[in-house]
Amino acid sequence: MESSTPPGADAVPGAVSRQDWEAIGLSLDRYGNAVLPALLDPAQCQALTALYPREDCYRSRVVMGRHGFGRGEYKYFSYPLPPLVDALRHALYPRLAPIANRWNRLLGINQHYPETLEAFLARCHHAGQRRPTPLILEYREGDYNCLHQDLYGELVFPLQTAILLSEPGKDFSGGEFVMTETSSDEQVAQVLPLRRGDALVFTVNQRPIAGKRGGLRRAAMRHGVSRLLGGQRHTLGVIFHDAR
């Protein structure tokens, strides 16, 4: 019997479960980010990139230069999400929720995330955050994304995922993913090279880090993309909280 799930989406749960989640958790604790290598295959990346020119699956298009966000553009998907995007959101959330809950306990934040994405989105919608946030970003030569945080409302899931859909060195040059971490003691910048199909899980807002004199303190995280030197770059962003 043939599966009713469109090609590509049915492979996502297995691809997510095969990742080294112990190492991912350790990397998130240490750096605020973690790479999930080859989460998507080239065919899945191409299928998602091919969605970008379409208008029927998006709720809005944002031209970054009009809002001071940098240069380039992105489109937010509308509900229902494409099956591959929906499968990624549902498969990744339950792996990340325990990490998010542990961070909240360490930071003394009275917020517990439920086990399932459906239960969390029900909270978002009850709070008036009903607009879907997964998106595809497109950059061309000279484009970049300013350092920022994807918050969208009062309810914020503290981790999100970006998946590179284009091949560095072939489809584009430059355009590296950049993160900064700012605490009361210092500021640190990270440049995170990815290959096509790699996913990066990273901190949306803040995370716990060890204080120099003991104990824990909060570090604020921001992310962006350096200037594209040539070609064209597409990225899928999987954000778990919805927007107002």
Name of the top-level CATH class: Mainly Beta
Task: Fill in the CATH topology.
Answer: Jelly Rolls
CATH superfamily: q2cbj1_9rhob like domain
Kindly name the structural category: alpha+beta
Domains, number:
1
Based on the structure, what is the oligomeric state of the protein chains? single chain
Please name the CATH architecture.
Answer: Sandwich
Which stretches of 5+ consecutive residues score pLDDT under 50?
Answer: 1-6
Count of β-strands: 14
Largest sheet: 8 strands, antiparallel
Mean pLDDT: 94
Strand content: 25-35%
Number of helices: 5
Radius of gyration using CA atoms only = 17 Å
Shape: globular
In which range does the helix fraction lie? 10-25%
* Helix-strand pattern: HHEHEEEHHEEEEEEEEEE
In whole angstroms, the N-to-C terminal distance is 41 Å
InterPro entries: DUF2086 (IPR018655)
Protein name: 2OG-Fe(II) oxygenase
Pfam families: Oxygenase-NA
Organism: Achromobacter denitrificans
Question: What are the key terms here?
Answer:
244 residues; Jelly Rolls; 8-stranded antiparallel sheet; 6-stranded antiparallel sheet; 25% helix; disordered N terminus; 2OG-Fe(II) oxygenase; DUF2086
Structure description:
This protein is an alpha+beta fold. Helix content is 25%, strand content 33%. It has a single domain, classed as Jelly Rolls (Sandwich). The chain is built from 5 helices and 14 strands. Strands 1, 2, 4, 5, 7, 8, 11 and 14 form an 8-stranded antiparallel beta sheet that branches. Strands 3, 6, 9, 10, 12 and 13 form a 6-stranded antiparallel beta sheet that branches. A hairpin with a 5-residue loop joins β12 (206-210) and β13. The longest helix has 25 residues, at 83-107. The chain starts with 11 loop residues before the first helix and ends in a 6-residue tail after the last strand.
